[in-house]
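Thread title: Can someone regenerate the structure for this chain?

I was given the following input by a collaborator and told the matching structure tokens would be attached. They weren't. Posting the sequence so someone can regenerate them.
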Amino acid sequence: MRLGTRRAGHGLLGAVADRLTATGILLVGGASERFGSPKALALLRGETLAERAWRVLRDVCTEVVAVGKADVVLELPFPVLDDGAHERAPVFGVIAGLRAATHDTCLALPVDTPLVTPELLRELLAAEAVPQTGPLPGVYTRSMLPELEQRVAAGELSLRGVNTNVLDVNEAQLLNVNTPTDLIVATAEALDTPADDRPVALPDGPALRDLSADFWSTALWAAR
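Best answer:
Regenerated them for you:
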């Protein structure tokens, strides 16, 4: 896999990053039922989860595409490609992303895994692998399209087993934000950028009450 060098300011850090010749596929089409509102727009340390995931992919890949649902209007600073499916499953986003990609190697990243770092994604790309925890985030190639399309045609919507290369990674970086409490945990663990390098947006009154209620209900459930 060839390397391309990009020199660009990264927030206030002015970081210099090497980008790999690969297409990043940002999956923003989740239902967000347990979260209660679109997770893509949830704030973590001053940026939405969608902006954060897009930024991380841009640090790693020479091309990035976002895939979601045309009937879900999200105010995002980048275009979102419709996955063309009536059902909701990551496989539809991966298929649409692979079809749109200009590179053979693609890296699929869900919008709700905010602790994933550029270093972790580079490791997955170097190994052309998925993590030991499951198929996402993970590397998929355009040569896998026929298998994915056959699976969907047969009613199989899982990505498991499509990429059989598995890489052991730090599971803490794969935290999935499904509830407001998960977002609190992710905010506490998001140590990849110093706090003074990006403004931290505090939740408003209703959002803070919702977060508090979810936190205490989860704490009481865990204490039983």
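Residues 205-223 form the longest helix (19 residues).
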